[in-house]
Backbone:
């Protein structure tokens, strides 16, 4: 008997890491703008649209007018969409292990009822990480579902290489990570996916880098993802050690972005100066100032 599959593309929008998981309404509006301009076209360009777009935010975000408008716009796109309001449903390594474990258990528990409502009677669940500012190429969904159907022993699949794009200046280069990147899909049995403790015991990796050491992972060398940089990223910049050779913008057609225009976001002078710093200097600032100090510094340069 053929397995019934529910395939979630999981967008961890709010609740991750520093600043209480929310960097302010301006950041949120900018991130939604980026999602609509770049990520949404890549989702609508998927050859197989048999997936559910799962967006997670925090408890306190329920009823937020900005998010409500965003949710309505996604539903109007024709995609199947579910919002959950219990926080980040993967391991957040910005917290000590014991705290991160408890937060993840609680987040999964809080999301379960909503997820059951959209899963139907599926006995297998695929969970693909879909960052809120990055894109997959047009056959990702089709490719992932076929891979797991044809290889029942595989527990996870991950793209090893991709592209990086400067959304503002419309530059495109190869992206060659040295470790397993955060563009992966995990396969769950229904009962494991819906049981928070079993879910974490099975797939609660502390970082995407450790995925192949935890689960039987199929690694693809296809350049199947596009990392978006725009100055509002949490950690990624265009001029990064992983950035490789420039490539033709014709590649954007593979992501449904052949007609995309350069991104325009309001940016303060202080933020422009911060962006001009080399990637290594920005990392050192975060290290020297610590979480609270960097949070205050970040708020200052955004003003």
Residues:
């Amino acid at each position: 008997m053929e397995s019934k599959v529910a395939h979630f593309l999981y967008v961890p929008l709010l609740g991750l890491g520093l600043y209480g998981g929310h960097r302010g309404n301006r950041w949120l509006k900018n991130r939604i703008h980026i999602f609509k301009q770049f990520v949404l076209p890549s989702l609508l360009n998927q050859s197989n649209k048999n997936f559910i777009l799962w967006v997670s935010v925090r408890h306190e975000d329920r009823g937020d007018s900005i998010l409500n408008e965003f949710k309505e716009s996604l539903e109007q796109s024709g995609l199947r969409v579910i919002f959950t309001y219990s926080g980040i449903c993967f391991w957040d390594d910005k917290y000590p292990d014991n705290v991160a474990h408890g937060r993840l258990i609680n987040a999964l528990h809080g999301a379960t009822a909503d997820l059951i409502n959209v899963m139907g009677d599926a006995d297998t669940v695929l969970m693909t990480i879909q960052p809120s500012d990055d894109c997959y190429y047009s056959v990702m969904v089709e490719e992932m579902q076929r891979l797991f159907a044809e290889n029942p022993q595989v527990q996870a699949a991950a793209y090893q290489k991709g592209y990086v794009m400067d959304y503002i200046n419309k530059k495109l280069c190869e992206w060659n990570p040295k470790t397993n990147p955060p563009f992966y899909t995990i396969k769950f049995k229904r009962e494991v996916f819906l049981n928070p403790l079993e879910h974490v015991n099975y797939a609660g990796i502390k970082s995407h880098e450790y995925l192949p050491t935890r689960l039987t992972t199929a690694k693809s060398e296809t350049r199947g993802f596009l990392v978006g940089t725009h100055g509002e990223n949490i950690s990624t910049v265009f001029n990064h050690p992983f950035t490789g050779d420039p490539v033709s913008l014709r590649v954007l057609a593979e992501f449904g972005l052949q007609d995309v225009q350069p991104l325009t976001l309001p940016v303060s002078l202080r933020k422009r100066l911060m962006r001009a710093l080399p990637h290594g200097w920005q990392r050192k600032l975060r290290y020297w100032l610590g979480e609270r100090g960097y949070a205050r510094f970040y708020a200052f340069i955004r003003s």
